[in-house]
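Key result, reporting period 2: structure in, sequence out.
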């Protein structure tokens, strides 16, 4: 299949496009996102079952995010010399162990520690998925492979969390965590069967984090990620008050469904075009996000839904675009660069909650649009300036 092939995202010769292995990587991302967000869907049950406040139960998500934020770079750096599948299995094994122990824990303090280590497993996993996917296919298909490997995130957000919440209502939160543990255990067998193994970097050829950061284009991509994902999370974290200001507080369910389905469409669109038009797609996605932000400030419900759909499309393709650009720029330091990406991404999530909270309690939700548009504008200018390094002109 040539680089200019117009074949659909998932339609490819299995010998040249290892769909089974790439879907196993996507399932790894699915488990990572579901493990992170699961307490949000089971907040009441966790609070009642652990005899803690809902605010404290919400810190289970914070502890997970801190685990990813603080350990992604060290873990990926320390495992550079490992065979890649072994490192990936270690990360998935972390989901099995720490989610399983969480299901049995009766101590909130212990659970917070377990959540931190679950986040650490996710940080390692996200640092490996992109590099592994790229090594499984020819260069001309790397963007498409990344798109498949990134399917887990929007599916977990749009379908996985509602299903897990439904399971929690019927089985309880502990049983739901055990179900996720069981799925992760099955995933380990899937990875062993379908995901090929690759050697790590030999001693003396393992790029240091600072060396990778200084590689032309890497810092530019990371700054674009910071601005883009920070803007996204200011809106996404406080989507409920944003909808309430528009008189749509009761529409949160349909809104999130529209966002999730649109994100899936964005992945499909980007997957078919990223190898030929990465730079153009980044610039168009940022411009589309800016337009969506403007639409979210309108009083009309149909304009709000249009804005949500456009926002979902542009965000759905963002992980593929940004991780591909980061890996392209980093070259042999791709895994270390991906760990930096995980750190910046999670930092942007945390900052989005903080900045959005300050805006909400101070200037009000009407200022969200101006702040997000400013961030998107900076990201667009940085991407525009990275035509030679980071977001290069022409086909990959």
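The corresponding designed sequence is given below.
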């Amino acid at each position: 299949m040539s680089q200019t092939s117009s074949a659909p995202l998932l339609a490819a010769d299995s010998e040249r496009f290892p769909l089974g292995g790439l879907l196993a990587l996507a399932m790894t991302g699915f488990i990572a996102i579901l493990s992170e967000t699961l307490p949000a869907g089971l907040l009441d049950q966790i609070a009642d079952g652990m005899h803690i406040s809902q605010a404290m139960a919400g810190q289970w998500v914070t502890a997970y995010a801190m685990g990813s934020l603080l350990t992604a770079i060290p873990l990926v750096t320390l495992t550079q010399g490992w065979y890649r599948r072994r490192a990936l299995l270690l990360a998935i094994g972390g989901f099995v162990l720490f989610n399983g122990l969480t299901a049995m824990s009766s101590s909130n303090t212990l659970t917070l520690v377990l959540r931190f280590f679950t986040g650490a497993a996710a940080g390692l996993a996200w640092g490996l998925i992109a590099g592994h996917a790229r090594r499984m296919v020819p260069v001309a298909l790397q963007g498409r492979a990344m798109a498949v490997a990134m399917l887990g995130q929007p599916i977990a957000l749009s379908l996985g969390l509602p299903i897990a919440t439904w399971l929690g209502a019927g089985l309880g939160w502990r049983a739901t965590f055990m179900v996720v543990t069981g799925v992760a255990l099955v995933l380990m067998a899937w990875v062993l069967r379908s995901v090929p193994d690759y050697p790590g970097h030999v001693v003396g050829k393992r790029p240091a984090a600072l060396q990778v950061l200084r590689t032309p284009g890497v810092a530019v991509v990371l700054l674009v990620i910071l601005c883009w994902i920070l803007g996204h999370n200011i809106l996404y974290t406080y989507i409920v008050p944003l909808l309430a200001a528009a008189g749509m507080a009761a529409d949160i369910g349909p809104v999130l469904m529209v966002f999730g389905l649109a994100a899936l469409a964005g992945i499909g669109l980007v997957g078919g075009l990223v190898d030929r038009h990465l730079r153009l797609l980044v610039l168009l996605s940022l411009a589309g996000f800016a337009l969506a932000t403007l639409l979210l400030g309108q009083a009309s419900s149909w304009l709000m839904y249009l804005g949500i759909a456009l926002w979902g499309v542009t965000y759905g393709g963002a992980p593929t675009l940004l991780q591909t650009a980061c890996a392209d720029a980093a070259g042999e330091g791709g895994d270390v660069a991906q760990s930096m990406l995980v750190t910046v991404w999670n930092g942007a999530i945390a900052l989005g909650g903080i900045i959005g909270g300050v805006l909400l309690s101070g200037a009000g939700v009407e200022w969200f649009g101006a702040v997000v548009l400013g961030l998107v504008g900076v990201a667009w200018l940085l991407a525009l300036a990275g035509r030679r390094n980071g977001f290069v002109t022409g086909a990959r």
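Residues 252-296 form the longest helix (45 residues). DSSP finds 16 helices and no strands in the chain. This case is discussed further under Risks and Mitigation.
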